[in-house]
Design brief:
The complex is a heterodimer. Chain A is α/β, with parallel strands linked by helices. Chain A has 10 helices and 10 strands. By secondary structure, chain B is mostly helical. A 4-stranded mixed beta sheet of chain B has the order 2-1-3-4. The chains are: A alpha/beta, B mainly alpha.
Chain lengths: 251, 405
């Protein structure tokens, strides 16, 4: 379970002054459900997810992730979270197995559990053939699987995906999408950010639309369709982030 | 969890570091080759140059002396000299190194000698040319031998003993042990080299483990793991320190071996080592090598932490290299200063990092152990090292540094 309460993140920029990257964002994600954070580039998706993963500290506000407070116990939060984004790369000079084991150890797994978990993951993801190959020698698809194994090695109850399909080809993107669904089916709490409408329509149980750091609308796809009297999610999104001026509406 | 995580980080960084081919070059190949090449090269070159200059036949021109055929004949008989016919442009010939020197005989030298009058023979040489200076010395010695022969002949003619001219002899003798002589000559250079290699050995890993990780996108992966940022810095710091010390230790080892080889070489040449090899003969005992390594430790800590803190600020490896350039210069200046003759430890210099360590290494190589200075320098460098490490830890806790864009 994830509960974000009035999360704020402000940055200081020399040219633009104070930037409210995330501005009083609150939402709840339930276990066994997928929450989609939909927004344009620079809307504040990544910053929100990084705060939930305790990579960044909120300027104000608070969040509970798997029952742990992100400010009081960031290390416990990270132990309960699997975080995957296209920015989270692999160590080029470690083998696939070493990479997964490394993060298992950092998550505090003991050696017997780690071995069992790694064997299980490599079999499940069909990675045994390149277990001892260095990460810099792997194909994009293989790297993707190693990253997935890395996020799952400590069996976290919460999964955070930050634009996980960005820059991937169709097949790699499909395997990520099916992996996200798999996480939900195993009862994990899943939150993921994207700007791709079709992914949201396919996957999400709840949707939050974020723009300029603010959460502007929230609900299931059905609820949003009903509220805005529109079936196309893209139309709904545009209506929310760039509402028509009265003049445009009357025209 | 806890401190074990720092160990996991260290172990993983060590694995990656050892698998990197660049590591092999900067940590193993460079220090292992640098000293043998440097010492053997210098010793060989300097030795052969000096030996050559000492045995060559000197092309020399005699100016004047037409009225002193006996003196000219004497000069012609000197086996070191090859007389060149007199020419107007003798000065240019010396400058252009065709001639090593010119000997100017005064008028009526032969008759003055016969009548017992005093006369002056001049040797012209080029002070900017080592070979010319050495040749002038040898010519002077030959001429003095000739003069002594004339004096002994005169004394003999009057039935007087030669000792009449030399009531006592004067001789200089060195009391300093060989290591102090070589320490003064080479200690500065060695301290400089060890410190410089200590820094360059840690520089590449420091960049790779911070800016390099940001560039490759693995920093964010690492930050998503439950390990605390303090343990991340410590793990990385110990790897940079390992690289730094490994480079320093290998360079000290290689230095010891190459000096040993030179010494062996010199004694193989049957107690007549060439001048160059003799100048480079260095006696670095095991104890002083160990003390050097111990002294370098806080300096290495300082370098490792400072380079981590600086390169963490950079977004890419290239940027990090740019930031570390000034540090390079800051290190080279005091290290070079310690090589200058006459720069010695004073309480004020003892608190300047790098310079103090470099000077102390110089002293230790010459066999002097000033315990007060050793304690002071060790303590002050530890203080700087602690400050740098503190800064590195603080930098790792700043989001604006970790996620600088």
């Amino acid at each position: 379970m994830i509960e974000a309460r009035n999360l704020c993140k402000h940055f200081h920029d020399k040219k633009r002054g104070l930037i409210r990257a995330v501005d009083h964002v609150s939402f709840t994600c339930q276990p066994g459900r997928i929450y989609g954070l939909l927004g344009a580039n620079g809307a504040g998706k990544t910053t929100t997810l990084r705060m939930l993963a305790t990579i960044l500290q909120p300027t104000s506000g608070d969040a509970l992730v798997a029952g742990h407070d992100v400010i009081e116990h960031p290390e416990k939060v990270r132990a309960a979270v699997g975080f995957l984004s296209t920015a989270t790369a692999l160590y080029p000079r470690l083998t696939a197995q070493e990479m997964v084991e490394y993060f298992g150890r950092l998550a505090g797994l003991d050696e017997p559990t780690l071995k069992h978990r790694v064997d299980d993951l490599f079999a499940r993801l069909d990675m045994d053939s390149y277990r001892d190959r260095r990460c810099d020698k792997l194909s994009t698809g293989m790297k993707q699987k190693v990253s997935i194994a890395r996020t799952l090695v400590h069996d976290p109850p919460v999964m955070i995906f930050d634009e996980p399909t960005l820059g991937l080809d169709v097949m790699a993107a499909r395997s990520i999408v099916s992996f996200i669904r798999d996480c939900r089916d195993r009862g994990k709490t899943v939150i993921f950010s994207t700007h791709v409408m079709s992914e949201v329509e396919k996957l999400c149980d709840s949707i939050g639309i974020i723009h300029d750091g603010k959460l502007l609308a929230e609900g299931t796809l059905a609820e949003l369709r009903e509220k805005y009297a529109e079936t196309d999610l893209e139309e709904i999104f545009v209506r929310i982030v760039a509402p028509l001026t009265p003049a445009e509406a009357s025209a | 969890m806890s401190a074990r995580n720092a160990l996991f980080i260290y172990r993983k960084e060590l694995t990656e570091w050892l698998r990197d081919r660049r590591t092999l070059v900067s940590t193993v190949v460079v220090p292992l080759l640098l000293f043998p090449v440097l010492t053997a090269g210098f010793a060989g070159l300097a030795g052969s140059l000096l030996d050559k200059a000492k045995t060559e036949t000197i092309p020399v021109m005699v100016l004047g002396g037409e009225d002193s055929p006996a003196v000219l004949a004497e000069l012609r008989h000197m086996k070191d000299l090859a007389l060149v016919p007199a020419a107007e442009n003798w000065k240019e010939q010396i400058s252009s190194k065709q001639l090593r020197a010119a000997i100017a005989l005064p008028e009526h030298l032969q008759s003055s000698l016969a009548s017992g009058e005093s006369a002056e023979v001049k040797i012209y040489f080029h002070q900017g040319d080592l070979k010319s200076s050495l040749a002038a010395n040898r010519i002077e010695k030959s001429l003095k031998d000739y003069r002594d022969r004339i004096v002994s002949d005169r004394l003999a003619a009057r039935n007087l003993p030669v000792s009449l001219l030399h009531p006592f002899a004067v001789k200089q003798e060195n009391v300093a042990p060989a290591e102090q002589v070589s320490g003064a000559a080479l200690g500065g250079l060695i301290g400089y080299m060890v410190i410089l290699l200590c820094m360059t050995g840690g520089m590449y890993p420091a960049i790779d483990l911070t800016a390099g990780e940001k560039e490759r996108g693995t920093m964010e992966t690492l930050l998503t793991s439950p390990v605390s940022r303090l343990h991340i810095v410590l793990g990385k710091f110990f790897l940079v320190l390992t690289a730094s010390l490994a480079t320093a230790a290998l360079s000290i080892l290689s230095m010891g071996v190459s000096f040993l080889l030179i010494e062996k070489n010199a004694s193989a040449l049957d107690a007549a080592p060439s001048a160059g090899a003799q100048a480079l003969q260095l006696h670095v005992s095991f104890a002083s090598a160990l003390s050097i390594l111990l002294l370098v430790l806080p300096t290495a800590v300082f370098f490792a932490a400072a380079m981590l803190a600086i390169s963490l600020f950079a977004r890419t490896s290239k940027e990090a290299q740019t930031y570390l350039m000034p540090l390079n210069i800051l290190v080279v200046i005091p290290a070079v200063a310690s090589m200058l003759p006459g720069v010695e430890l004073t309480p004020r210099l003892a608190v300047i990092p790098i310079l103090s360590t470099s000077l102390l290494i110089k002293e230790i190589i010459s066999g002097t152990y000033h315990w007060n200075y050793i304690a002071l320098i060790f303590a002050s460098t530890c203080l700087y090292a602690a400050a740098a490490l503190f800064l590195a830890v603080k930098m790792f806790q700043r989001e604006s540094v970790l996620f600088r864009s």
